[in-house]
Amino acid sequence: MWLICAIGSSVFAALTSILAKVGIEGVNSTLATAVRTTVVVLMSWGMVFLTRTQNGLNTINRQSWLFLILSGLATGASWLCYYKALQLGEVRKVVPVDKLSVVLTLILAFVFLKEPLSLRAFLGCVLITAGTLLLAF
After folding, report:
1. Sequence-distant (≥ 6) Cβ neighbours of residue 119 within 8 angstroms
2. Cβ(135)–Cβ(93) below 8 Å
3. What backbone torsions phi and psi does residue 102 show, to the nearest 5 degrees?
4. Can you give the pTM of this predicted structure?
């Protein structure tokens, strides 16, 4: 099931880039990010109520609240940077650089979460980085 969801994420992320590039034409990138974020918030809360999981709010502990808030701030900063980059650059260059997040995530997971970084994963990171350089520069 995780693979189906991950593929869906990839497809929707690709659509996001194309739709965003067209949508931000002539629009301030920060304003465009706010509009997008509003839609995401409405959709997310809609899913919470649709699945009747809103009662779980009172079961979230302080540490989870802290890290969810920090994650939200990181997401917001990422989106602001991404929309500005899309506004200034070509999608074919911006998207590969954005996807370096895969490499950075694996490194951060190794350092902070103590997740193993196998030779295979390391080589994958090297290939992703090389692919990014080939596509973007």
Report:
1. none
2. yes
3. -60, -50
4. 0.84
